[in-house]
Amino acid sequence: MTTVPEADTVLRTIRFQLTLATEKLPDGTGYELASLVAQQTGNLYIAVPLSETCLWLPAVENGVRSLGERALNSLMLKTEAESILRTSDNAIVATESERSRRRSFAGEVVRAEAPRSGAAAQIATAGRFGRQANERFERDEDLAPRGRSAADERVLSLAGKAPSH
Questions:
Q1: Adjacency order of strands within the sheet including 18-22
Q2: What is the domain partition of the chain in residue ranges?
Q3: 3-state SS, residue 44
Q4: Is the pLDDT of residue 123 over 50?
Q5: Hey, how many other C-beta atoms are within 10 angstroms of the C-beta on 155?
Q6: What residues contact 41, with CB distance under 8 A and at least 6 apart?
Q7: Contact (CB, 8 A) for 30 and 8
Q8: Burial of 36 (0-12, 13-18, 19+ CB in 10 A)
């Protein structure tokens, strides 16, 4: 984007967590974007050219105007940008996680790993009780014989175990 109206249009269409702008644009300044970025609780950094490099001024940080509070060199900007984007990624992951905790709706894909992990836990529990039963048998305690149920067969087949085990 090379003009303030173009940048304004894009920022109204797409919400960015981090916006970088130059101080001087052909038809205005990057500072003119500050109010829109602040409304969207974003971050706006303005590049001020120096003789051999540039200095970055945070104009808006997390929706709060902060122009004049500090200045960043390129390395500091890199670290700051990584932090902002990491925080944004974590927020997206948290949102997705919350969405997956809600109950399933028709047409929604359910993760295949969930039944397997439940089956593995059931097998571990069954194995523990099986060892306890063997110990009781060795001590000549009475054990009530129990036939295998359909649920036992399903759990064993999910775990890749033969029903005879």
A1: 18-22, 43-49, 54-61, 64-65
A2: 4-96, 113-158
A3: strand
A4: no
A5: 21
A6: 62, 63
A7: no
A8: middle
| First CA to last CA distance, the chain | 67
* C-alpha–C-alpha distance, residues 146 and 138, integer Å: 18
- Amino acid at the residue 138: E
Q: Which burial class, exposed, middle or buried, applies to 67 when counting CB atoms under 10 A from its CB (0-12, 13-18, 19+)?
A: middle
Residue whose structure tokens are 């001024």: 57
3-20 tens-digit pLDDT: 899 999 999 999 899 999
Q: What is the DSSP letter of 72?
A: B
Q: From 158, 163, 161, select the one nearest 117 (Cα to Cα).
A: 158
Q: How many CB atoms lie within 10 A of CB 15?
A: 10
Quick check: 15 and 42 in contact, CB under 8 A?
A: yes
pTM of the model: 0.56
